[in-house]
Amino acid sequence: MAAILAAVCAVAAWRGGGALVWRGFLAGGKTLWANLALVVMAFLVAGFVQVMVPKEFIVKWLGAGAGFKGILIGSLAGALLPGGPYISFPIVASLYQQGASLGTVVAFYASWSLWSLPRLPLEVGLLGPKLAIARFVTTFVVPPLAGLAAQALFARWT
């Protein structure tokens, strides 16, 4: 990210001088300020997951030994998690650090991205039931398959 920031600063300086660079930093600061509380709360929730959910529980139900059952649980949990990436990514990282298998966290993350049951009513309301149902049905098998594939292909990483 530092390299990307340096590159966009250089382009901004080239295109508009120091004033454009300063405006970019101000706009970024406003975005940070607007989202800071959400980011802090998401990391605190992830911290509470780490200290309140026993590691043994995560390893038993979501670890490599849980196999496909863990992948299915991860898929369901991801589908139920509300919120955006500021909420889901710290929780995914926390589960992985506590002993959830790679396949389980990939399934969790994939189902959060694709299934998102809390988002489904909004999707039906804005896009219509036909499109929402078609999208949901066609992606239904993806999170468990992604979890199985991640476990099979990258299990050595854990």
The geometry reads as globular
Order of helices and strands: HHHHHHHH
Low-pLDDT stretches? none
Rounded to the nearest angstrom, the radius of gyration is: 20 Å
Category by helix and strand content: mainly alpha
Number of helices: 8
The overall pLDDT, averaged over residues, is 92
What's the main sheet like? none
Helix content: over 70%
Number of strands: 0
Give the N-terminus to C-terminus distance in angstroms.
25 Å
Our estimate of the beta-strand percent is under 5%
Task: Tell me about this structure.
This protein has 158 residues and is mainly alpha-helical. The chain has a domain at 53-157. Helix content is 84%, strand content 0%. It has 8 helices and no strands. The protein has helices at residues 2-52, 55-62, 67-80, 85-98, 102-114, 120-127, 129-139, 142-154. Helix 1 (2-52) crosses helix 4 and helix 5 packs antiparallel against helix 8. The longest helix has 51 residues, at 2-52. The radius of gyration is 20 Å and the shape is globular.
